[in-house]
Each structure stands twice: as structure tokens, then as C-alpha cells.
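Hey, resending since the last one bounced:
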Amino acid sequence: MALRPTDKPDIEAALAAVLDRTASRDCPQKLARALHHAVFPGGARIRPKLCLAIALANECDSVELALRAACAIELLHCASLVHDDLPCFDDAPMRRGKPSVHRAFGEPIAVLAGDALIVAALETVATGELSGAAALRMPGVFAVLARGVGAPHGICAGQAWESEPTVDLARYHRAKTGALFIAATHAGAASAGVDGAPWETLGTSIGEAYQVADDIQDAIATPEALGKPCHQDEHLERPNAVAQLGVQGAARRLRELIEAGIDSIPDCPGRDLLVDLVRAQSQGFIPKGLSRAA
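The C-alpha cells again:
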């Protein structure tokens, strides 16, 4: 079945189905509860929505493959949050307004939960019946996701840059946050059987914009508003856009990145709708109080 621009595949239901399989009664129950805690309730699900939007814009002929790719992207993102919050990294007590996984279930279970979510993401793409062209495209989607989480340019590398004595800020942002946005654009394109390369600038720009917005929020917001600790970049002496550019300079950079991403969207059957969606989603990146600034 082909995806149409008006279709809205149910990401939450698809994620719940994955968790039903992964965190079943056969799973150690503390680990099972930790997996649910990490995935639900979720955030804005920006990355899987972007993946599906690109598949839609290119008239993907396999709802199943596109939805699998979108779910995998979100599971990888959730895994990265579990690991990012660990005591060896941020030691964050909260995530999405509730205790982080290691605070709720202990550090060993949090490590295992993050690992299990990465494996579940790849399993989601690689297992189950696909027919025709979708079956031929699956290995390409799988490879895109693996690159997005691994080294040298994936989110593992992004986390590792924090342990280096110096790092270029754009390179750090591209790996730490941009990698999964790039994977989302490539996976959406690959699901539809089109070349992912022309879509990479969109992923790069939106990924960096999201990280710059996060840097701004970390500097000016409150834990109550964000649902997680603030001032972590300053406390941990991490590279960040506010330290380099100031709040207003970071806000200008944020807007430049959003526009660059939108301008880069290639011609495709659903381009106009995709532009509207990316612009609407990106408005949520701009922190309150900065909407008229810069």
C-alpha cells in the first residue's frame, strides 16, 4: 500500500507493538518496566515524524517499511536519552518530567535498557515479512540506522566527543544530535526507494537547529518547564552554542539553520506539504521569550 500525503501512520501504536514483543512476560520484569518507562510517554516524536513525512512526500509504496524505520529512529533516540542521563555522563535525575531510568530502576538496568532499545530498533527493521521492492530496500534502511547510532559519525561518537579535550562545535552537534535527524531523512527516502543524499542537508540543518535550541533552553529555562535539569552545559563544561555565540547569537543561528533546512528540501511530489510540516515543527524549537528576539 502506498503512503499518501494525507496519511498519518500511528507511531504510538507501532511503538507499543514493539514494546509488547520486547518487554513481554518472558523478559525480566524490572527491565521490561524500564523499557516502557524510557519510551512512554514520549516527547514530540520529531525524528520519526520527519522520517514518515519524507516517505510520504516521496509517495512511498510501503507503509510497513516506512513505519518500521520511523519506530526504529525513535527507539534509538530513547536509548540515547537513557544512556545520556547515566551517572558517567550527565547524571540527570529527571527526563520528560519524571525520574530518569537509572534513578527509577538503578544504573545496571538503565545500561541494559539502553542497549536493549538499540537492539530492538534494529530488530524492528530487520525482522518480519516484507514483499517486493520493500524487501529489497530494507538492507539500505538498516544500514542508515546503524550508521546513525555508531562510529565514526553516529550518536555514540557524539557522546564520545564530550571526553575529548577539544572539539569543533558543529562537528559535535552533527554527531550528538544531528546523526539521528540525518538518519531519519535518509531512512524516509530509502523507504520510498529514492536517493537519500539530497535529503541530508535537511537532516543536518534540523538536527543542528534542535541542538542549538536545546543549548538555549539549558541556559535560560527552568527544570520545571523542561522536565529535566538545566545549566548542565555550564556545569559539565560541554561545548555549546550559547557559550560560543551568546543567547541572541544562538537564536539567530537557530533561525538560519531552520531556513537552510527548508530551502534544501528537494523537489518531490509532496514538497509543499513537507515544507509546511517542517516549518510548523521547527517553530517549536524556538524557546519562549525568544520568538521576537534576534
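The first helix runs from residue 11 to 22.

Sorry for the duplicate.
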